[in-house]
Every structure is written in structure tokens, then in C-alpha cells.
Amino acid sequence: MCIENKKLYPNCPIISRKVVVGGLTKLQLIQKLQQHSILMNEYGERLIADDKFTTSDTKYSLQTVELTVSDLGFPNGANTTQIFKRASDLGLELCPLELAAHLRLGYLDQPEGYSGNSLQHQAPSGSITIASEILTEDDDFPKGFYLRRINGALWLRGYRADHLHIWNHDDHFIFCQT
Predict the structure, then answer these.
(1) Per-residue pLDDT tens over the stretch 49-82
(2) Keywords of this protein's UniProt record, alphabetized (predicted)?
């Protein structure tokens, strides 16, 4: 596929959402996730429990944009550094880490993802990865969150990916618009 023939951001279809972030302590945010029956995997729990995961005392709104890796100009996929750099070059920003939990609470009608066997070391079908600052280079520590709905259950899941990981062209990411 030739990049010149593909519509790239901002001239491609996007999903834009306004997300209110902040105003809750970490404990209140976790309780709210539990009240809405949001499930978390071990990586998600580890990430949200870490001292580097902080919440804002003040509520504020962010405009987000959901794009595929291909929409950013990578028809054959790319690593996280390439994806984040291209997004920055296009005027998009990384999301605060807490945005993932607030988005999960506000996006309760996410379409069902494929629940069959996911291929290891790939983003699951139907998942949306939140582009956020990576807290540590430690490959054993989660790098961020993704949203998923499987068998009717809503998930806020953490993921690990080293700097060599290649995201597929159709993997979805959420960035903040400036």
C-alpha cells in the first residue's frame, strides 16, 4: 500500500470523544470502576496501584481522537516510539494516564471484541490502546492501558510491550488533541 494513496490524519475518518478527567482520588477512581463492574487484569491493577499513577484533584475536559496505526501513516505497522513521534508531529499529544480509567467509565457501550484465542504479543481484537507516557523503561512493568469488551464484560487492562514491539496497522490508539 502506498502512503500517498491513503488518507492520513487529519484527512481520515476519526472517532472524537470529549472526556472529563480528574476530580477523584485514586481510591475513589478504583471504587467507581468497581461500581460499574469494570474488570482489570494484573497489569492494570499493578499500573493503577503504582505511586507514579496519579490523579488530578481538579476536573478538566480533554478532546481525544481515536486512530489506527495506518491512519498515522504506517500501513505495515510501527513501534511505539514511531507511533508517538508521528502523532506528535501531527499535533497530537499523549494522554494523561488517568484518562484511561475515566474513558472506560464513560465508554460503556464499546462494541464486543473477538473473544477467541488472541495471538500472543499483539493487541487483542476490538481493543483501544490509550497513548500515554511510559512510566519506566523496565520491560516487566506495564506500559499503559487499553479498553476492551469481551463476552459483555468491560475491561481496563494494562499491557506490556518493549521498544521492539511492532503494532499492527489496524491497532487503535487514542491521543489527545491540542
Answers:
(1) 999 999 999 999 999 999 999 999 999 999 999 9
(2) ATP-binding, Helicase, Hydrolase, Nucleotide-binding
Query: Which pTM value belongs to this model?
Result: 0.93
Rounded to an integer, what distance in angstroms lies between the CA atom of residue 27 and that of residue 22? 12
**CA 35: distance to chain centroid?**
22
Place of cell 501513516: 73
- Find the Cα–Cα–Cα–Cα dihedral 62, 65, 66, 68, rounded to 10°: -140
Q: pLDDT of 34-47, one tens digit each?
A: 999 999 999 999 99
Contact 167, 82 (CB under 8 A): no
